[in-house]
Amino acid sequence: xxxxxxxxxxxxxxxxxxxxxxxxxxxxxxxxxxxxxxxxxxxxxxxxxxxxxxxxxxxxxxxxxxxxxxxxxxxxxxxxxxxxxxxxxxxxxxxxxxxxxxxxxxxxxxxxxxxxxx
Length: 118
What we know:
The protein is of the alpha+beta class.
């Protein structure tokens, strides 16, 4: 079994993605690392599909854009993505987000949607 080079941290970030083949979808990023993520989605995707991914990070409210991510696996309504290309500023933001997750994994794991209804 292949070992990950970078640990993945649990999250609950909303996401949207699209491909040049006009596949559009959304889902929830359930884990995140410096090199990839896992997403729960109802959109049917196939391994090898290249996507542009937008991850909505709740604190501070911002969107991280991954220019190119490739679908590595799909099963049971979940996909695994490997990040191939991020602009330098987005790469720096991803590093900050993952660093924050290493310090406070459970605080950032939940969307703040529950609090918006108050």
